[in-house]
Amino acid sequence: MNPLRAYDIHIAGLDNKRYEYDFTSDYAFFAALEQELIQKGNIQTHLLLDKSETMIRLDFHITGTVEQTCDRSLDEYDEPIDTRQTMLLKFGDHNEELSDEIELIERNTPTINVARYIFEFIGLSLPMKRLHPRFRDEEEDYADDDTQNGRVIYRSDPESANDDDNQPDTTDPRWAALRRLNNN
Fold it and tell me: 41-51 and 8-10: which strand pairing?
């Protein structure tokens, strides 16, 4: 049996009102999606489905942890997930993704599967730089240092400034000829 079938919601017979669903995602969920981003995790999803004549509004609240590999040390760690996302499914003549938050679905669609939305929202909530929690304190320390937060500091040593004053002013003769033409 396909573990993603548990994420099917039969919308054909639903009245126009609000419904609540709870899903638990574990290893079988991530393995069934055939992807490389997340291998293991324990995720709880609370879904509010609000059906009307013209659309379905899906409000997701996703919490839990997923196992990630640290980019620096290659150690595995649990990344906490806590995100709220909204998806709008508008009824239309054909299926089409209008934007990241809005999709058209055919009016006679009997079921929708929310597994793809849950996985996409989990992926969006993960940080770009995967750091083990023991390294995150170090990153914050670097951010406080003026040399690491994007500012470039120029310094001139008084000794090197004096050295420049002692050297004779040497001008390229071609520039000198151009200056004479300009002075005329």
Answer: unpaired
Domain of residue 42, residue span: 3-140
- Residue 79 included in any domain: yes
Q: How far is CA 37 from the centre of its chain?
A: 12
At 35-61, the pLDDT tens digits run 888 889 999 999 999 999 999 999 999
The label of the residue with tokens 């929690």 reads 133
pTM here is 0.71
Q: How do residues 116-168 score in pLDDT, each as one tens digit?
A: 999 999 999 999 888 888 887 765 555 555 445 556 565 666 555 555 555 55
Contact 47, 22 (CB under 8 A): yes
169 found inside a domain: no
The structure tokens listed for 11 are 């919308």
Give the whole-number percent of the chain exceeding pLDDT 70: 82
Angstrom distance (rounded) from CA 72 to CA 183: 62
Which residues, 6 or more positions from 46, have their beta carbon under 8 angstroms from its beta carbon?
20, 21, 22, 60, 61
Judge whether 55 lies within some domain.
yes
Instruction: Count how many domains the chain has.
Output: 1
